[in-house]
Amino acid sequence: MLTKMALIPVKTVVTERQELLRKPEWMKIKLPADSTRIQGIKAAMRKNGLHSVCEEASCPNLSECFNHGTATFMILGAICTRRCPFCDVAPRPPDRARRQRAGKAGANHRRHGAALRGDHLG
């Protein structure tokens, strides 16, 4: 029995191997050799049932922020009302006990974040 894929002709073109261009040094992120601070921030977030924009949105700079001891909490939990195409945040109903857990977390460097749109500015 033939499948649809078996009926599609495949053309193979042999090309010369080209050298890949490398990223410039200023564009490269240097990961810390010791990830204990990053793991500590993640553990504190899990322990308190908190969600960070960094993790939920799959931010490529997560290790940089967490290594500096900062995390941006999502005030509505793991949801966001905006649906940015580059973001991985899944919509879910708000968590009512979120405020109390965020207050108890007591991180030294704490930022609470919510996306702002131009139509909300005065």
Task: List key phrases describing it.
mainly alpha; 5 helices; flat; disordered C terminus
Can you give me a brief rundown of this structure?
By secondary structure, the protein is mostly helical.
How are the secondary structure elements laid out?
Layout: H1 4-7, H2 36-47, H3 53-56, H4 62-67, E1 71-74, H5 98-105, E2 110-113
Parallel strand pairs: 1-2
Region (Disordered): 91-122
Protein name: Lipoyl synthase
Domain Lipoyl synthase N-terminal: 13-59
Share of β-strand residues: 5-15%
Amount of helix? 25-40%
Strand/helix succession: HHHHEHE
Main β-sheet: number of strands, strand sense, barrel status?
2 strands, parallel
Query: What is the number of beta strands?
Result: 2
| Radius of gyration, taken over Cα atoms and rounded to an integer in Å | 22 Å
Structural class: mainly alpha
Number of helices: 5
Low-confidence stretches: 118-122
Tertiary shape: flat
How far the N terminus sits from the C terminus, by CA atoms, comes to 66 Å
Mean pLDDT: 75
Strand order of the largest sheet: 1-2
Structural summary, described in words:
By secondary structure, the chain is mainly alpha-helical. It has a domain at 34-112. The chain has five helices and two strands, in the order H-H-H-H-E-H-E. Strands 1-2 form a two-stranded parallel sheet. Strand 1, helix 5 (98-105) and strand 2 form a beta-alpha-beta unit. The chain is flat and about 60 Å long. The model is unreliable at 118-122 (pLDDT under 50).
